Each structure stands twice: as structure tokens, then as C-alpha cells.
Amino acid sequence: MTQDPTRRDARGTRASRRYGRLGLFLPYILLLVVAVLWSAGWFYIRGRAEREMDAWLAREAGAGRTWTCADRSVTGYPFRIELRCAAVTLERSDSRFRLGPITAAAQVYQPRLVLFEAQGPFHVEQGDLTGDATWTGLQGSFHGAETGFTRASLVIDGPKVTVAGAEPQPIAIAGRHLELHARPTPGRFDAEGAVDVSLQLAQAAIPDLDALTGTDTPADISLDATITRATVFGTGAVPRELERWREAGGSLDLTALSLAKGAQRVQAKGTITLDAAHRPAGQIDLRAAGVDALIGGIVGQSLGSDKGALVGQLVGGLLGLGSRRAEAGAPQPEGTPLKALPPLRLVDGRILFSGFPIPNVRLPALY
Questions:
Q1: Cα(192)–Cα(187) distance, rounded to whole angstroms?
Q2: Which of 22, 234, 273, 292 is most buried (most C-beta within 10 Å)?
Q3: Which is nearest to 313 in space by CA: 336, 332, 293?
Q4: Category of 44 on φ-ψ map: left (φ > 0), alpha (ψ -120 to 50) or beta
Q5: pTM for the complete prediction?
Q6: Secondary element (H or E) of residue 53
Q7: Cβ neighbour number for residue 13 with a 10 Å cutoff
Q8: Is the CB of residue 109 less than 8 Å from the CB of residue 78?
Q9: pLDDT at residue 325 above 50?
Q10: Eight-class DSSP state of 210
Q11: Residue 213 CB neighbour total at 10 angstroms
């Protein structure tokens, strides 16, 4: 029995129309499925992040450190995980601090890179010391890894820091721009727990330094250093953490420390550790130009300002740190070559310059 070709063609036409409609809506169906799966994955990641955060807070509280994230919220759907705190506080037996609103965010597809920004003020209390800091802008980043981190950075505009309770007088530091970067030291991180640190502070105003140098010209300060055994540091009490670092043989290796304040320039490198009495110890090699007034300021602490300034000029001349223009009272050219100074040695709480202790200067125990 033969089938009517007209009926067969009609069925084929209807089937092709159904498949055609399906093909028309298939991209939208697939997009909807992807959106549902992505949303489910985002909510799963957010829940996991909150659980890990709660677990960390519980561990810290068990160790005597109570962290608080006021009005905590986790948002950022669909591509980010964003943590917001109206304020962050830490309470423990030896200190406490409070930081203003903070936001930290990570992309879902790059969860180990965390970007954050914070608003001031920052307030900290440590024993008899009280510190306060403000800024016009603060941003940072932390790139984590399975073994720790690969890079951390902090950039601050308009920083202002004051420390009350410091001896012999309060400390005040302000600047136009501050940058701090850290990374594991290549080839030394696994064996020595070494971390490279780079710091730059532009246009710094430091009243104590102004009084010492005799000029209120803003200073530019830069530091490149390596901290060995840095991996032993934790969030415990500062004295305990510093003692763990000392016992582990930690050191601060100054690769390049530079201070430029008008025509006065100093460069330093060396190694600093902590001695058994918890005081800084080590040796710092110096190169300088235009620092006869600085030497005079240091010596003047024991000889009086007039005699100290005279001695400073004499020492500066002997070391080749002054110039005829400087001796005549004119400003020294900023391009004057740096001259080597006798090293500074930190021994038993004293600072030795060219083998002689600096009068009336004692290095206190840090903890």
C-alpha cells in the first residue's frame, strides 16, 4: 500500500517548523540555564566566604582577639564578592584599634586577588601609647597564593599620623603620598621566610626632623628592605610576636634607605636585629651630603646648640660633607656628591658614630 506523498510532505513541513522554532529559542534557553547556574554558583561562593569568615573570627576570639565588622554585608552579584563593614575593631588584652568604613572585593573568576579601600580615621591604643591616623584616600591590594601571597600593596594620599605618650614628646608625621609594597623574596621565602618591603613617603613634614636639621623643607623618604623570618609574625600581642621573631633569628636588612630634605641627603644600608634586651642592634653604613647641621643638631643635645652647630660644621668639614658655599651660609647645591660617613653601630642600647657614643641617646627596649 503506498502512502500519499502529499500527506508525507505535510508532516515533514510541520516537523521542520517545530525544529525551526526550537532553534530560534535555543540561545535564550541556554542563556537562562547559564544565568541560573551562575547565580547558584555565586550564592554558593558567598555562603562559603561567610562561613570561612565566621570560622576565622571564632578562632581569633578563642585566642583572645575579638574582631568586629559592624553592619557586615556581602554583595557584588553577579561578578564580585564584596565585603563591607561600617567599622572594623580589634579588642585584645594589650591593645585595641578601630578603623572606619572599609570595603574589600574580589572577582568571582579571580578570588585570590582582593582589592580594598578604607576611610578614616584609624585609632589605636597600645599600652601608654595612643595613635591616630587620617588620610584623604586609602587603597590596597592583596594577591594571595597557596603558600601565602605573591604581592601586597597599600597606597595612601594625604596621610597624617600622631602618636601620643611617646618619649620625650609626641610624634607627628604628615605627607602628600605614601606607598608600601611587599612580596616574598625570590629564592629566600621558602627557606628564610624573607619578605621584600618597599616604602616611599613624598613631601613628608616631621617636626622632630625639622628641629634636628634646622630646616622645615619637606622630606622625601624611600626604603627598600628585606625582613627575614617574617612568616613567624601573626596577629598576637606585639611583644610576643616580636620575641618569636627575635628567637627565630629575624633581621631587617636595609638594602637602600634614602632621605632627601632640600640640600641635605642621606643614604644608608645595613642590618638591624634585636638583642637579648629587646633593643635594636646592628650596623648601618652611611653616605651623605649637606648634613653638617644635622650632625650639629645631634651633638648639640649635649654641648648646647651653639657649640653643637660649631662642632657639626667642623666634623662636616673633616668628612668632606660641607662646601664653601655652605660654610659661607649659602644653601648647598642638591647635586653635591654623597660622601661616605663612618658607620653607625647600635650596641647595648647606644649609638656609636665613628666608634664614639652619641651623647644622651639611648635606644629603648621595643617591648
A1: 9
A2: 292
A3: 293
A4: alpha
A5: 0.81
A6: helix 5-62
A7: 9
A8: no
A9: no
A10: H
A11: 21
Contacts of 361 (CB under 8 A, 6+ apart): 298, 301, 350, 351
Q: Is 109 helix (H, G, I), strand (E, B) or coil?
A: coil
CA dihedral 89, 90, 95, 99 (to 10 degrees): -30
Percent of the chain exceeding pLDDT 90 equals 59
- Alpha carbons 245 and 194: distance in angstroms, whole number: 12
pLDDT tens digits along 61-118: 998 899 999 999 999 999 999 999 999 999 988 889 999 999 999 998 898 999 999 9
Instruction: Please report, to the nearest 10 degrees, the dihedral formed by the alpha carbons of residues 348, 354, 357, 361 taken in order.
Output: -90
- The CA radius of gyration of the chain, in Å to the nearest whole number, is 31
Number of continuous H segments (helices) and E segments (strands) in the chain: 7, 22
Identify the three-state secondary structure at position 192.
helix
Q: Where are the domains of the chain?
A: 175-367
State residue 203's pLDDT score: 97
DSSP element (H, E) containing 164 = strand 160-164
Bridge-partner residues for 362, per DSSP?
A: 350
Rounded to 5°, the CA angle 41-47-50 comes to: 140
Write out pLDDT tens, residues 180-233: 999 999 999 999 999 999 999 999 999 988 887 778 999 999 999 999 999 999
The closest alpha carbon to 159, from 200, 124, 192, 128, belongs to 200
Closest CA to 313 of 288, 296, 329, 331: 296
Distance of alpha carbon 294 from alpha carbon 340, whole angstroms = 15
Cell of 23: 532553534
